[in-house]
Amino acid sequence: MPDTPDSIKTGYTQQQLDWCTANEGLVWSYIVKNENLYSINPGTIQTYIGEGPFTSVFSQEDSPGNIGVWIGREIVRKYASKNPGMKPGQIMQAPAAQIIEDAKYKPK
Fold this sequence. Notes:
Elements: H1 6-10, H2 14-22, H3 24-33, H4 42-49, H5 67-82, H6 88-93, H7 96-103
Helix pairs in contact: 5-7
């Protein structure tokens, strides 16, 4: 769906997408700093993937809910860009830890 707007793919408004792009490094830094990337704690997971008008650990006025899904998408995009020969089905079958490691995702 390369021609489909990101707002349709994510369910975010353009303002929410703009916030995600502008604060991508902040979100990633928070996740890494708090050692939440590999957390299996349901409360921690809910913080990042829960539906809601905002993500509780970020700005209540601007941050969208479900920010973890957006960050995950950006990690997969980075991985895909480093592996252009892989088809979407192959990427979907790659182990998550491999995707995270090989993507070397480090937004600014």
